[in-house]
Known about the structure:
- It holds the Pfam family HTH_3.
- This is HTH cro/C1-type domain-containing protein.
- The protein is 42% helix and 12% strand.
- It is built from 18 helices and 13 strands.
- The strands form four sheets. It has a six-stranded mixed β-sheet with strand order 7-6-10-9-8-11.
Amino acid sequence: MPRTKTKLFAGNRLRQLRQREGMTQAVLAECVGVSLSYLNQMERNHRPLPDHLLQSLCERFALSPAWFADTREAHAVQALRETMADPIFKTSPLQLVKMAEAARQSPELCEAFLTLYRAYTFEQERHAHAPLASMPPLEPYEAVGNWVQDHNNYFHELDCAAEEFYERLISTDTSLDTALARHLRNQHGLGITHNTDMQERGLVWRIDRHKHQIQLPHNQPPESTLFFLAQIIGQLEHTRLMTDILRREGPKERNAQELARVYLGNYFAGALILPYTRFLHKAQSMRYDVDDLRRHFGVSFEQVSHRLSTMQRFGAEGIPFYFLKLDIAGNILKSFSANRFSQARFGGPCPLWNVFRAFATPGQIQVQLSQTTDDSIYLNVARTVGREGLSYADRPRQIAIVLGCTITDAAKTVYASGLDLADHTLVVPIGPGCRACGRELCSHRSLPVSGRVLDTGSNARGVVPYRAVPEH
């Protein structure tokens, strides 16, 4: 395991791990071979987590080192920056260094503060027509997103179960779709039929147990059929494992649990059609070329991109990517990050991001080096995905995805070819959305930064008609 370049203070994560496993400090200290006082000091962030203990914890609890990293702290700081940009806080501004300290020392308090702010904004939008108590402070999809992010979008037990199933199932002379169909027929007595009215009924698959059939749309792409058959196998054979994961560590609210179950089903399907070890080795040998990978495995561009964002198995980590899926209006449909990148929680994403340029060039890959407001530089790969229209009256959703890694990992990918990664002249500065972005000279700004005093200037006019008075 490579040594960390900076001291890793992981007190909150140690405490979360211990509580998740139902351990006392004394039990965990004995488990990893340290004194009780030493563990107590690490949990209070008075001492950093050394490399040998990091490795011991990862091996003992089947975790990735990224689970202990500061990516969650970076995401929390970003959320605090956006929240504190609200004008309601203008009389009590909080410096970035203080936000970082709060995210590190009191993460539970920060989350409680953000939950309270969500409740406040919800009430503002509803004009106080409903009592606060009737509204959950966190929407189910947000709770699931936070839960997935907390696991770095990697679920070890489920991933291993999918990989083991693949290795038992596949043979050299059989394609995966044929093997899945044969397994469903032999083990569950389910044959596959194709119906012409599935789309009209809003269904992508349906199990008819009376007829012993799996019904699929007649015009479905083969990569979608492959994914949905894997979904069905996960539902039929691995529901207990998913239930155990949810019962042990899943969201507590009912709707959030149901959405998390859907997510785990999708995760299993993706891990089955792209088994971890085989996929990682091929990704590394192909330098993470998504088009080459999708052709090799017979899957879609989106399926490969999403799977690349999950490769965080301890001892066999791939590049830590972030993955986002957006529609043409800028609504974020999926968001996962194994690195420090964090998207805006309020307002639309930055228009300088290459994911929006992808809509102007459908099916073509857009590559961009961008720098976020915390000075991190990312290599971003964006492309439109989704199906074409089936008829003149059909209105398929216009969707694009973006896959990104830090510039330190960029050279491992084919997308860095021809780029001078040491020359940052053409790096595009992107922000968390205009509301929270403090960049002063951006001609793409659509509204003033929130929470700052504006100086419109009487003797001069800038690129934008308003500038924020510098913070002291």
